[in-house]
Amino acid sequence: MGLVTMSERDLQRIGILSEVLARRRTEVSAAAVLSLSTRQTRRLLTAYRDGGGAALIHKARGRASNNSLNTGLREYAVELVR
After folding, report:
1. Chain Cα centroid distance, residue 32
2. Which stretches within the chain are classed as H helix?
3. pTM value surpassing 0.85
4. Could you say which of 41, 42, 55, 69 would form a disulfide bridge with 74 (CB–CB 3.0 to 4.6 Å)?
């Protein structure tokens, strides 16, 4: 996949999920620490087991928003406001 940049939140998730896989932490306590439901924690564990740390990163990272304006239209609107 190549070089992957991660936020502190992603690194924290990896640390906690690796503790769950090593059986040093339960799924319930991991869910509490990550502020997720146990179902979401199980989903993340499955993704982490299958794809490693890169599987936890949001798939839309680095892409433009679907709701973003065309750059020309945005610049025109900013000029109107000024």
Report:
1. 17
2. 8-21, 27-34, 38-51, 71-81
3. no
4. 69
Q: Within 13 Å of residue 25, how many CA atoms lie on the same side as its CB?
A: 20
Query: Would you mind telling me the total number of residues written for the chain in this entry?
Result: 82
Distance (Å, rounded) from C-alpha 49 to C-alpha 60?
A: 21
In tens, the pLDDT along 44-65 reads 999 999 998 888 887 777 788 8
Joined together, the tokens standing for residue 39 give 């179902």
Q: Do residues 30 and 16 make contact, with C-beta atoms less than 8 angstroms apart?
A: yes
CA pair distance 43, 37, nearest whole angstrom = 10
Answer positive or negative: Cα dihedral of 43, 46, 48, 51: negative
Nearest residue to 10 (alpha-carbon basis) of 56, 60, 59? 56
Helix (H, G, I), strand (E, B) or coil at 62: coil
